C-alpha cells in the first residue's frame, strides 16, 4: 500500500509538470485527490484584509454552492481555517484547529461549510517568497480517514500542481526584463520616493530617472508609478 | 550581488578566520535559531560531513559575510545518504557529478522577503557554481515549504520520496537539474546579472575525475580580499 501511494504521487508529478492548461491540471489533481478521500479543492492566492478572494483563485474544484456562499459572504476574512494558512508553513487539517465558542464568525463559517456537505479538510500553505502566498485547500463530504503517507502525497502533489498552474497563468519568459537601473528606480518608487529624490539617491540626472520610470511603465504595461509598484510586487520583482 | 568564495581542502588555509565566522553563523542559525543541534561551548556548528570532501560557499557583501552554504559530492557520505536515506525511496543520488546541498544560511540582518535579497543572490551563485563545475544535479533534504521557491526560478525539480515530518516540520528529498535555463531563471527572478563566484588560491574541481579536458585552463583569480579575512 505504501509503495502504491508513492507511485500515484510520482506519476502525478511527472504528468502535471507537462500540463499547461489549467483545466487539465485541475482534472488531473481532482482524480487523484478524490481517490485519496478529498474530492474538492481550491488553489488560490490569499487576499489581504481589504481584498476579495475571487481574483486570486487559480484552480476551483469546490462545490459550486460553497464557493458562491464563501465568496459572497467574504468568508475568508473570518475563516479560522483559511487564516491559519498565513501563519504556518505546515499543512493542517480542519480538526487540528480549535475554534473557541466566542469566535462566532469562525463558527458560522464552519456551520455553513457543513450545511454545504463539507465535513473535513486539509490545507497546504505555499510560500513562494514573493509577496503572493497561496494555499491549496482540500475538502471532503465524508469523514477523512487518510493516513499520514496519503496526506504527505497530497501535500507534495498539490505543490507541483500549483507550480504548473502558476506557469500556466504566468509563463516565466513573459516576465519583463528590467535593467538594474530600472529595477532600482522601481525599488525607490516602492519606498515612496519621487523621481527627484530617486535621482539624488542614485546620483543620476532627474530626466534620466524620468526616462527609466517611463520605460518601466511601458514594460510593466501600466499607466502610473503606483501601478508599476503594484505590478512589481505581484510579479515578485520587488518585495512588498 | 555577492562575492561568493569557494573554500575547499586545498585553499582553506587562506580562509581560516573566514571559516571560523562561517561555522559560528551556522551555529547561530542552526543550533540557536532553529534548535536542530544541542548547544556547545565552542559556538561552532560542524558535523561529520565537514570533511576534505566538502565545498563551502561563503557569500560576502561589501566585505562582510552574509550567507553561506555547503556542497558535498553525492558519491561521498552526505546528509541524505547517511542520516536521511529513508527520504529517498526512489533511490539515492550517488554520482560524483551530483551535489548534496546543505546548511544554507543568510545572516539575520540581511534577510528580507522576496527574491531580490541575499538569499536569492546566493541561490544564483550556487547554480552558477554548478554549471561552472559540470554538476548535473543538486539538492538533498529540505523543508517541503521550500519547493514552491524553485518553481519560481523555473527549475526542474525531482522529488526522491514522499515528504516526512522530521522534528515537527515536513521535509522532502529533492534534486534540481543544473542547466543554463536554470541559471537564467534564477538570475531573472533575483536580478543577478553577473558572475558572483570567486576562486582564490588552489581550488579543487568539484567533480574529481573528469575524462574530458576543461574547456578553459583554470586561472587563479585575483580578487580583493574581504576585510573579514584581514
TrEMBL record, chain A:
Lineage top rank: taxon: Bacteria
Name of the protein this chain belongs to: LuxR family transcriptional regulator
From TrEMBL, chain B:
Domain of life: Bacteria
Protein name: Autoinducer (Acylhomoserine lactone) synthase
Amino acid at each position: 500500500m505504501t509503495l502504491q501511494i508513492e507511485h500515484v504521487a510520482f506519476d502525478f508529478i511527472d504528468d502535471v509538470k507537462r500540463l499547461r492548461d489549467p483545466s487539465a491540471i485541475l482534472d488531473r489533481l481532482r482524480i487523484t485527490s478524490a481517490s485519496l478521500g478529498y474530492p474538492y479543492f481550491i488553489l488560490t492566492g490569499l487576499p489581504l484584509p481589504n481584498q476579495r478572494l475571487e481574483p486570486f483563485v487559480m484552480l476551483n474544484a469546490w462545490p459550486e454552492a460553497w464557493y458562491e456562499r464563501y465568496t459572497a459572504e467574504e468568508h475568508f476574512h473570518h475563516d479560522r481555517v483559511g487564516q491559519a494558512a498565513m501563519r504556518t508553513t505546515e499543512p493542517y487539517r480542519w480538526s487540528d484547529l480549535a475554534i473557541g465558542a466566542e469566535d462566532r464568525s469562525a463558527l458560522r463559517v464552519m456551520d455553513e461549510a457543513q450545511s454545504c456537505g463539507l465535513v473535513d479538510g486539509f490545507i497546504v500553505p505555499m510560500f513562494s517568497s514573493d509577496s503572493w502566498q497561496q494555499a491549496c485547500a482540500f475538502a471532503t463530504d465524508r469523514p477523512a480517514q487518510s493516513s499520514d503517507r496519503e496526506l504527505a502525497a497530497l501535500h507534495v502533489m498539490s505543490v507541483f500542481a500549483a507550480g504548473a498552474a502558476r506557469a500556466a497563468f504566468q509563463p516565466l519568459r513573459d516576465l519583463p526584463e528590467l535593467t538594474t537601473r530600472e529595477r532600482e528606480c522601481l525599488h525607490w518608487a516602492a519606498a515612496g520616493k519621487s523621481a527627484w529624490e530617486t535621482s539624488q539617491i542614485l546620483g543620476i540626472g532627474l530626466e534620466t530617472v524620468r526616462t527609466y520610470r517611463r520605460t518601466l511603465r511601458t514594460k510593466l504595461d501600466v499607466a502610473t508609478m503606483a501601478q508599476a509598484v503594484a505590478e512589481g510586487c505581484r510579479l515578485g520583482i520587488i518585495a512588498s | 550581488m555577492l562575492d561568493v568564495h569557494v573554500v575547499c581542502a586545498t585553499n582553506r588555509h587562506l580562509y581560516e578566520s573566514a571559516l571560523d565566522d562561517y561555522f559560528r553563523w551556522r551555529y547561530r542559525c542552526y543550533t540557536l535559531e532553529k534548535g536542530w543541534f544541542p548547544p556547545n561551548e565552542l559556538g561552532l556548528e560542524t558535523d561529520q560531513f565537514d570533511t576534505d570532501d566538502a565545498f563551502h560557499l561563503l557569500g560576502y557583501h561589501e566585505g562582510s559575510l552574509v550567507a553561506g552554504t555547503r556542497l558535498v559530492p553525492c558519491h561521498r557520505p552526505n546528509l541524505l545518504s547517511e542520516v536521511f536515506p529513508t527520504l529517498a525511496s526512489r533511490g539515492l543520488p550517488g554520482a560524483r557529478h551530483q551535489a548534496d546541498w546543505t546548511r544554507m544560511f543568510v545572516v539575520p540582518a540581511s534577510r528580507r522577503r522576496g527574491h531580490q535579497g541575499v538569499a536569492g543572490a546566493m541561490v544564483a551563485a550556487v547554480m552558477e557554481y554548478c554549471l561552472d563545475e559540470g554538476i548535473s544535479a543538486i539538492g538533498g533534504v529540505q523543508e517541503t515549504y521550500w519547493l514552491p521557491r524553485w518553481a519560481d526560478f523555473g527549475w526542474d525539480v525531482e522529488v526522491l520520496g514522499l515528504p516526512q515530518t522530521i522534528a515537527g516540520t515536513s521535509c522532502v528529498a529533492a534534486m534540481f537539474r543544473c542547466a543554463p535555463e536554470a541559471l537564467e531563471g534564477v538570475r531573472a527572478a533575483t536580478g543577478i546579472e553577473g558572475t558572483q563566484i570567486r576562486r582564490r588560491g588552489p581550488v579543487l574541481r568539484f567533480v574529481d575525475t573528469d575524462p574530458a579536458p576543461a574547456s578553459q585552463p583554470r586561472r587563479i583569480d585575483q580578487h580583493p580580499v574581504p576585510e573579514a579575512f584581514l
